[in-house]
Amino acid sequence: MILVTYVPFYRIHEVLLYFTKNCEIISPRECWVFVDNVYHEKQKELLRKIFPDSYLLSTGNWRNRTETWLEIIRHASATDDECVVVDSDNLLEDSFKEIYSALKDAPLYTLMNIEAWSNDQTRATYLRRSRKIGEITIRGETRPLLLYKVYEGPGPSLFRGGSPFFIGPKQVVVFRKYPSEEILRGIERAIREVDPWLRNFINDETPLGIIAYLMGIKEVYWTFGSYHLYHGSTPSRQTPFLVALAHVQFANGLAKVFRKKEFTYYGLKYRLAFWKNFLNLLSV
User: Fold this and answer.
1) Which residues on neighbouring strands pair with residue 220, listed in sequence order?
2) pLDDT in tens, 25-60
3) Residue 222: which residues within 8 A CB-CB, separation 6 or more?
4) Which of 54, 144, 228, 266 has minimal CB crowding within 10 Å?
5) What is 2-179+208-233's CATH number?
6) Which one-letter DSSP state was computed for residue 150?
């Protein structure tokens, strides 16, 4: 098993605060850290000084989460080993290995943090696109095992918030099966159709949902199993019409590369969202 986390350069302290503990909890074969916004040799020197020598360090100046994820998946798929990717501000439960064993047959699954699961509104949002298929028992505690629908097509959801493509909760993502290089290259081409300063408006969950869908995985297993230590380093609210514009450009790129009607619908939904939010902005 490989344990991975990813951070922008300004959050590298989270590797020392949380990721080192995660490595201790599950004792993976290797620990990998991907750091974005690294463009100078002095930055690399600093990282090598503060991170343990045993960590495999990968750096880049991707400047967005999507391309960072593509690099993680590309590296992991070359190892022929299972990969656990954990958000840098999340601590795994010490029972993680038991969850890992309980879901040994899932090609891809995710974990929600316990704080989000305990929040009625957040939980309901995720359950709306999920169905319960069973339960797992971890140290005497029964937890639901759910499947999250990664693509929500035309219908009432057209006028509801949220992306048609979404992997579900992704504080922890476990890959036992990987996408082809063709899929990774295609998504890479599509994200580069988005203006660089808009790319980070596309959340991680959307490209991950697209990857799953293109792999033929229509529903992703999930349960809960981590703790979220909120970093508070960036504003939580984004300008809605800029978010919509980023998704429109991404959807256009995907439609051009993969020629699937699902991506045309994805673009339509966010075109409507763009004009709605743009007109709202003008009326202020």
Assistant:
1) 148
2) 999 999 999 999 999 999 999 999 999 999 999 999
3) 109, 110, 111, 112, 126, 130, 146, 147, 148, 168, 169
4) 54
5) 3.90.550
6) S
Sign, CA torsion 51/52/53/54:
negative
157-173 tens-digit pLDDT: 888 889 999 999 999 99
Report if pTM > 0.85. Answer: yes
What are the boundaries of each domain within the chain? 2-179+208-233
Strands 108-113, 56-59: pairing is unpaired
Other C-beta atoms closer than 10 Å to the C-beta of 153 total 12
Convert the pLDDT of each residue in 99-133 to its tens digit. Answer: 999 999 999 999 999 999 999 999 999 999 999 99
Which residues neighbour 241 within 8 Å (Cβ) at sequence distance 6 or greater? 273, 274, 277, 278, 280, 281
